[in-house]
Amino acid sequence: EDQVVERVERMDDVAGLVPAAAGVEIVLEGNEPEGAELAQAVLQQVLDGEAATPIVHETIGGDRSRVTEYGAAVGAMLGVLLGALVGAFVMVDEKEKQSIKALAVSPLPLRDYTVARALFALAISLVNVMAASAILLGPAVSYSQLLLGFIFASGIAIVIGYSVGGFADNQLAAMAIVKVLMFVYLSIPVITIWIPQRWHFFFYVLPNYWMWKIFENVYVGQLGPVGFWGACALTLVESVVVIAFLIPFMKRRLALR
Q: What's the sign of the alpha-carbon dihedral 184, 185, 191, 192?
């Protein structure tokens, strides 16, 4: 008790509590009555388990940033593009070296030629997509869902290969096509992040829009009007339609059956 009184009487005085017959006694320095009343009120609230003052919590920050998740989606799109371009430039190289003419007189059909180039391009694309996801998100992404989405989007790689390898006869022409293709393939889907959802129907005819929605659903969450599986189905259907449209052109350009 003496130590409590000594502490209270220092220059930076504080209220003290000492045992008393009725419970506890408040020890104060000075003769201000309001100090005694305030200390008694605080003590009563502590004993009753009540808060001494109301506390209001207000969150002024917004939702957490999705930069990493959208960065992974862009990385996945680029991964597919780079793999497809490898296959496309192989086709262009075969044109420049005239080796495609040797294939034209062989019994090799366009289907087998496409499968051979597509498997090589898709293997590279898959490695790129998985690597980008592992670097940016680590274990925070469902790789089984990512693999399924990649399989449904693989037709886009064939469309890119046909678009570049079919139209370009040399490396310079291929680079010019790639510059245009980059905007259509990647820039248009990415800008839909800032476009209100009600205007997205303008992009529904683009298979790469639905491909973007696949990766957006994988990395960010269930977004868009159709979800993950709807985006997969629409990507597959639209890419098959584009491939079917390009096949006659490719047969004429490559002179394959």
A: positive
Kindly report, residue by residue over 149-208, the tens digit of the pLDDT. 999 999 998 889 888 888 888 889 889 999 888 888 999 899 988 888 889 989 999 999
Residues contacting 108, CB < 8 A, separation 6+: 256, 257
Specify the amino acid at residue 213.
K
> How confident is the model over 232-252, as pLDDT tens digits?
999 999 999 998 888 888 777
Q: How far apart, in whole angstroms, are the C-alpha atoms of residue 44 and residue 41?
A: 5
Asked whether the whole model's pTM tops 0.90, one would answer no
List b or e across 190-221, with b for residues whose CB sees 16 or more CB atoms inside 10 angstroms.
Answer: eebeeeeeeeeeebeebbbbbbbbbbbbbbee
β partners of residue 16: 27
